Amino acid sequence: MRRLLNLVISVIAGLALGIATSALADRESLQAFVVATGGTFTQLLGNASGDSQIFTNTSDGSDNRALALSGGGNSGTDRGAILLMYGNEHASQAGRIYLYTGNVSTGNLLLNAQNTSATVQLMVGGSAKWTINNTGEMLGAGTSTIGWAVVDGTDNTACSSQCTSPAVFGFNLAAGATAPVIVGPSDATADICLCAGAS
Questions:
Q1: Helix (H, G, I), strand (E, B) or coil at 161
Q2: In sequence order, which residues have a C-beta less than 8 Å from that of residue 6 and are 6 or more positions away?
Q3: 36: how many CB neighbours lie within 10 A of its CB?
Q4: Contact criterion met (CB below 8 Å) for 53 and 46
Q5: SS3 162
Q6: Residue 10 vs residue 108, higher pLDDT
Q7: What is the band of 45 on the pLDDT scale with cuts at 50, 70, 90?
Q8: All domains of the chain, ordered by start, with CATH?
């Protein structure tokens, strides 16, 4: 007979974990019951009947709690990286999710699509809006332009005065059109300007 590992984890007001195991028959599985101040979090992990999930014990329409997964001994960036998730009826952060790195100089945020054919996507409403492909290009899903304009105005004039919308940067064409030099929006040597708007 194989052993069933029934793992009970209790976390009460920051006290140390208490772990109890018991042997049961038929299949190997893992049950985790987490008890914390303000609420009970329960879910079967490794259940052979379906996908594993972790969630709070709130009911639909009353999901007013938060769930934090931390790499440290407490849910603060001074202790480690955190994944923080809020229920849809939370009083101040309804439906939000936050991903924090630890507050240390090496606390980088790394997104890694391991397979060399994979992509990284930013999605809204289930549809990809921005995609970083496997060659490093960042592609937008829109079929229209972003609404920026190239303004060929007065030579040697700062783009901040030539653009009616915010100026992004300018091109100095003193060396010719085949050798443009990018200059700042306030640089008075600009001949052509890129403006963050229609003009």
A1: helix
A2: 21, 22, 24, 29, 30, 31
A3: 16
A4: no
A5: helix
A6: 108
A7: low
A8: 4-100 (4.10.1090), 115-143 (no CATH), 149-195 (no CATH)
